[in-house]
């Protein structure tokens, strides 16, 4: 069945539909990963977005129960050069087509994904709609041009009620702004006692949980759309060690007086090199974000830049000079992606141990 992608600038691409026979609009972005489409589909950070995968063949190993990053996908569409409808893998349980069909997510194949990617790189991310062939393109273009960016993504994907993942070591309060399950799994593997709380939980409520540390998760959208989280972080700084990932990194920056801005086409893929400034060490990282912390805004803050992107020099890591708090823009749980940065979870737990030791000494 023919289906098309219409963009707000009037460009359109005609291809073949797969997945759900439904029409959805969203911000059209691209991801450069060669594998990991299941994790990408289920990553809450893609809430409201239509994702173009630059690797030409997608779906060859199917869908399995183990590689989900959330229970309910929030993505609004998937665009590929070619989809494999008969996957072959020992863990395969269903095809990409049937999965998208069951979840109400439209797919489009058979278009020139290289041309679409170049268009996004040149003009920046664009609003688009995957739709049938019988729509009035001019009407769709006008609708897309007049619609603003979505501002409720975090509220859409955050957990509604707190829950407990018991462990015997440090109590970590994990604030869910659109958390990937890989982050929770990384803490569980380190025997942490984890309490996952909604994005709008107050500092007072968090402190009542008696945390040893607080982890600010990844999530979708503009960090300025979550002002209550900025206030919460400001009230917690200096009281409990804090580790921020992706959106959590941006929120820590805003809470400390820095600013953020939207990138032209974002960083989305599993092969982004990041340099640790102090040592020059390079990590290959997984990334998925459309906003960045403004480097020049750090001058009047108590934040120090610890990591930078090799490709474009943007801020990839921060630490607070007065309080036990640090953050990274990339994903140390890396699913999909390399595991170079997984040591950051151990660094977080080490920071917690050092803070406990310091308080014990002060008590004496």
TrEMBL record:
Keywords: Amino-acid biosynthesis, Arginine biosynthesis, ATP-binding, Glutamine amidotransferase, Ligase, Nucleotide-binding, Pyrimidine biosynthesis. Residues 1-131 form the Carbamoyl-phosphate synthase small subunit N-terminal domain. GO terms for molecular function: ATP binding; carbamoyl-phosphate synthase (glutamine-hydrolyzing) activity; glutaminase activity. It catalyses: L-glutamine + H2O = L-glutamate + NH4(+); hydrogencarbonate + L-glutamine + 2 ATP + H2O = carbamoyl phosphate + L-glutamate + 2 ADP + phosphate + 2 H(+). PROSITE patterns: GATASE_TYPE_1. One of its GO terms (biological process) is L-arginine biosynthetic process. Pathway: Amino-acid biosynthesis; L-arginine biosynthesis; carbamoyl phosphate from bicarbonate: step 1/1; Pyrimidine metabolism; UMP biosynthesis via de novo pathway; (S)-dihydroorotate from bicarbonate: step 1/3. Composed of two chains; the small (or glutamine) chain promotes the hydrolysis of glutamine to ammonia, which is used by the large (or ammonia) chain to synthesize carbamoyl phosphate. Tetramer of heterodimers (alpha,beta)4. Small subunit of the glutamine-dependent carbamoyl phosphate synthetase (CPSase). CPSase catalyzes the formation of carbamoyl phosphate from the ammonia moiety of glutamine, carbonate, and phosphate donated by ATP, constituting the first step of 2 biosynthetic pathways, one leading to arginine and/or urea and the other to pyrimidine nucleotides. The small subunit (glutamine amidotransferase) binds and cleaves glutamine to supply the large subunit with the substrate ammonia. PANTHER family: CARBAMOYL-PHOSPHATE SYNTHASE SMALL CHAIN, MULTIFUNCTIONAL TRYPTOPHAN BIOSYNTHESIS PROTEIN-RELATED. HAMAP family: CPSase_S_chain. Belongs to the CarA family. This is Carbamoyl phosphate synthase small chain. It comes from Alkalihalophilus pseudofirmus (strain ATCC BAA-2126 / JCM 17055 / OF4).
């Amino acid at each position: 069945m023919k289906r098309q992608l219409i963009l707000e600038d009037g460009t359109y691409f005609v291809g073949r539909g797969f997945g759900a026979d439904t029409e959805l609009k969203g911000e059209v972005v691209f991801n450069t990963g060669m594998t990991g489409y299941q994790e990408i589909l289920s990553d809450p950070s893609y809430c409201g977005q239509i994702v173009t995968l630059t690797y030409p063949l997608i779906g060859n190993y199917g869908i399995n129960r183990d590689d989900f990053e959330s229970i309910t996908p929030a993505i609004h569409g998937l665009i590929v050069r070619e989809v494999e409808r008969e996957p072959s893998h020992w863990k395969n349980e269903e095809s990409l087509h049937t999965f998208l069909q069951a979840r109400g997510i439209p797919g489009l194949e058979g278009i020139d994904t290289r041309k679409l990617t170049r268009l996004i790189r040149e003009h920046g991310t664009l609003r688009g709609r995957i739709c049938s062939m019988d729509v009035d393109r001019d009407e769709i273009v006008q609708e897309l041009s007049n619609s603003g960016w979505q501002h409720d993504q975090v509220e859409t994907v955050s957990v509604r009620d707190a829950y407990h993942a018991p462990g015997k070591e440090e109590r970590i309060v994990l604030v869910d702004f659109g958390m990937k399950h890989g982050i929770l799994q990384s803490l569980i593997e380190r025997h942490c006692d984890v309490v996952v709380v909604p994005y709008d939980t107050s500092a007072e409520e968090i402190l009542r949980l008696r945390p040893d540390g607080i982890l600010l998760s990844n999530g979708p959208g503009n960090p300025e759309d979550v002002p209550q989280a900025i206030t919460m972080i400001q009230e917690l700084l200096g009281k409990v060690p804090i580790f921020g990932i992706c959106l959590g990194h941006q929120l820590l920056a805003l809470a400390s007086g820095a600013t953020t801005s939207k990138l032209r086409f974002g960083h989305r893929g599993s092969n982004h090199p990041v340099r640790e400034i102090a040592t020059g060490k390079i990590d290959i990282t997984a990334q998925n974000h459309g906003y960045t912390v403004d480097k020049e805004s750090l001058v009047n803050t108590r934040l120090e830049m610890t990591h930078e992107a090799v490709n474009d020099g943007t801020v990839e890591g921060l630490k607070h000079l007065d309080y036990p708090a640090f953050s990274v823009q990339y994903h140390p749980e890396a699913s999909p992606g390399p595991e170079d940065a997984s040591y950051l979870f151990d660094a977080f737990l080490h920071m917690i141990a050092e803070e406990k030791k310091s308080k014990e000494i002060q008590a004496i």
